[in-house]
Amino acid sequence: MKLTIPLFPLPNVVLFPKTLRPLHIFEPRYRALVSEAIRTDSLVGMVLLKDGWEEQYDKFPPIEKTGCVGRIIQSNRLSDGRYYITLLGLSSFTIEQELEPSVFRKAEVTLNETFAENPLSSVEFDRLSQSLEETLSLLDLNRELSWIRDSTLDPEALVHHWSAFLPFSPEERQFLLESPTLKSQAGRLFDLLLFKRSEYDETQQTGNSESSTIEPYL
């Protein structure tokens, strides 16, 4: 399915389907984007800015080709024109072409409608869950571990939530978002968890705490 949607590029935010993302909208061009979206279909395409975006941020810096379309499910417009909104992630997409920019960027995108056609088996999901629990326990992330154990979300939603809210860098999250299927995203997530554990083990052996620093989700 193809859509034409406004693009909201940010340097540290990767939206995933079936997850919620609160945002504070303060730049004039993105206030205009949100205002137009609310008047129409409430859809916004979140995309990650590529490295080197700082010098061109006020213009049109390079962006990743894969993003996630979200629907504005809650909005609060302040007296000075700023917005507080909440996005619900709907589907990953691939940018086919950007349109001639005006106040903000727009693009024709193709949604990834085959993502869930190759579901996880119970064995694969249990293996991923076990690796996740072991990694979180090792990194002393008890709050996240408690949330995962208590969650009643379905496997697809859980894989998206783990991808979005575990302590990965924006680049690692982008790698997960670009997965063509649920099974491939789960596999990439599993590999990242193994990497975090090996990184932790190496840090413990060398005594270098800085090497284990993981960028938080912002």
TrEMBL record:
It comes from the Bacteria. GO terms for biological process: proteolysis. Residues 5-197 form the Lon N-terminal domain. It holds the Pfam family LON_substr_bdg. Keywords: Hydrolase, Protease. One of its GO terms (molecular function) is peptidase activity. This is Lon family ATP-dependent protease. It comes from Leptospirillum ferriphilum.
